[in-house]
Amino acid sequence: MYTDTDLLWSPSRSAAESSNIAGFMRWLSGARGLSFSDYPELWRWSTADVPAFWSAVWEFYGLDAVSGYEEVLADPSMPGASWFPGARLNFAERCFARATPARPALISVSEGGEPVETSWEQLGREVAAVAASLRDMGVRPGDRIAGYLPNTSHAVVALLAGAAVGAVWTVCSQDFGTSSVLARLRQARPTVLIAADGYHHGGKEFDRRPAVAELVEGLPTVRHLLAVDHLYTSSAGSSWSQRPTVEQHAWSELVGIQAELEFADVPFDHPLWILWSSGTTGVPKGIVQGHGGIVVELLKALGLGVDLRGDDRYFFHTSTSWMVWNFMVGGLLHGSTLVLYDGSPTCPDVNGVWRVAQQTGATVVGVGAAYLVALEKADAHPAAEVDLSAVRSILQTGSSLPGSTWRWVYDRLAPDAWLQSICGGTDICSVLAGGSALLPVRAKRIQCPALGVALAAWDPSGQPLIGDQGELVVTAPMPSMPLYFVDDPDSRRYLQSYFDVYPGVWRHGDWVTVDPDLSVVVAGRSDSTLNRMGVRMGSADIYAVVERLPQISDSLVVGVELRDGRYFMPLFVVLAEGTADDDELRNSIATSIRQNLSPRHVPDVIVPIGAVPRTLTGKKLEVPVKRILQGAQIAEVSAEGAITHPEMLAWFADFASRTASLP
Fold it and tell me: Which of 3, 151, 386, 644 has a CA between 20 and 30 Å from the CA of residue 261?
């Protein structure tokens, strides 16, 4: 029998010595006179002498030949750290810096289709053409452009073209409902919308042209619509929008324009993109990250952490709304080939992702924890049905993985592969704790904190904990931390999101245990963000849909990480007077969430309750209810007299005790 601390994998001597991180350590010895005996020693130096570490990353990846800088870290305070003042870097330009004509840049697969390769030359031509068109449309550095796109080559080209111009990119996946998309893109105020006619999922085609028309109507700042034919040939020839002030352009015509590949010369902290992550109240947060910060962070994270190389084929099953899509596109910085899949992970069967990996020769494959758990529960045996001999590493993220699933990976999926469990987030578009090619893999344990990440577990008073669970904090700045939030001029939302508990120290919102050997265990979210299949959404998004229904007077939703690795998302509703508690009501609620928000965030159960408990200032008790459903005692989560309807906490405790799916 396995135990939770069982050794599942160890790097061979040759694999460790040929890894990127071993090469970096040899370079440090020769170029800097620094010698480190193992990973923990290297990590401690990387977080103790932050400027020295990041200057080493800069030089090791050849950025010293691209731009100079005045100093590495002019201001170390959080938030507001000032990185590499004087440096000038363009993300798109760096993505082409390691282009290799002998290998494709992209391999695109639509559900049920054959792989289609895009050469580096073709990618360059298309990016140049779209960038030139954007300039002709009046797009200038700092302007915002938005995508409503599936995971296809069009999305990669659009991002790189926008970055080449110096515009700020943002994108929403097409499985998000229009109200959810508008809640994000209205904040971005884009002048250009790039939208596909639809996407594939579960053996079906979803026509999104009517949704595109709704988006154009709801985004008054949009002046140009770039219509992408993905499902239907020549559909872009017809008008998708009736708004006379919007000019529609066929993507297929734009990419044929002859143009030179030019890149805006932008400073290190020039905004690159907006990623969206919801808080527990209010509208979704627009997180702005910069060209330089993303370049150096993803060179480090993918190169020294993931061990990504130029000859890798890098496949992450993701939508464009999940930050791992951006994390995947960062593979271009290393000259890697990206594998893009538009489709369901379980089509034509549960091994859908692995069939795409086989089709494309993927060597590094990323998936959400929920997918691996589902495969295990289905008693799947991909290794017996699919040729995964090319896969050397599997990335797993989105939530914690139960011990049995770690063991299933090595028994049934890829016995010789390196399983990297990574923890990070939209907030930094990177990894806080993840893998190292120098360390063993043990069940239920993330191998280590990432280089340059001063990660720790703290108790409520701000004291560090070793071997005990605490709040995940980062005590030194990282280059990819947000520049700012959209529409947050006084930084109030930014401060509240990460610095309200420990001023000057980043609180990530996860429960974490850091052991003496630096292995890390993440126990789930310490706040109430809904993290469904790796895509975060705020509870406010759910309430905005559900509480519009006349049958519902109030509601409470929580996302609960269970001990066996499953994720349970119940929705509790207070019914309006005279409303019947029946299947018709539940179907109505589920349909409304699916159509107006996201199919990923349809609750597992919908349960009527007498009242929603709140703080005396009116905030719903999401985190306390979540903790009760995870097994906490009422006295541990709420002080007497501090809430309305305190009797409801006993109701939730009773619900937990009589619900078979809970611990």
Answer: 151
How large a percentage of the chain has pLDDT more than 70?
96
Max alpha carbon distance in the chain (Å)? 77
Q: Could you write out the three-class secondary structure of 473-528?
A: EECCCCCCCCCEECCCCCCHHHHHHHCCCCCCCEEEEEEEEECCCCCEEEEEECCC
Strand ranges, E, within 245-363: 247-250, 271-277, 285-290, 313-316, 337-342
CA distance 499 to 474: 11
- Kindly report the number of other CB atoms within 10 A of residue 391's CB atom: 23
Q: What is the pLDDT of residues 96-114, one digit of tens each?
A: 999 999 999 999 999 989 9
pTM above 0.85, yes or no: yes
Note the pLDDT of residue 537: 74
What is the β-pairing status of strands 144-148 and 198-201? Answer: unpaired
- SS3 sequence, 632-647? CCHHHHCCCCCEECCH
Q: Under the phi-then-psi rule, with left for phi > 0, alpha for psi from -120 to 50, and beta for the rest, what region is 451?
A: beta
Q: How many CB atoms lie within 10 A of CB 490?
A: 7
Structure tokens at 636: 């541990």
pLDDT tens-digit series, residues 524-577: 777 777 877 777 677 777 887 898 899 999 999 999 888 777 889 999 999 998
CB 308 within 8 A of CB 490: no
Q: So what's the pLDDT on residue 623?
A: 84
Task: Compute the average pLDDT of residues 119-145.
Answer: 98
Question: Is the backbone peptide bond immediately before 79 cis, with ω within 30 degrees of 0?
Answer: yes
Rounded to whole angstroms, what are the CA distances from 356 to 107, 115, 201, 360, 363?
10, 9, 14, 6, 12
Q: Helix (H, G, I), strand (E, B), or coil: what is residue 310?
A: coil
Distance, CA of 504 to CA of 75 (rounded, Å) = 13
Task: Give the gyration radius of the chain's Cα atoms.
Answer: 24
Say which DSSP state 66 is in: T
How many residues are present in the chain? 663
pLDDT in tens, 609-623: 999 998 755 678 888
* CA neighbor of 338 nearest in space, from 322, 307, 369, 317: 317
Q: Give the position of tokens 């990996």.
A: 357
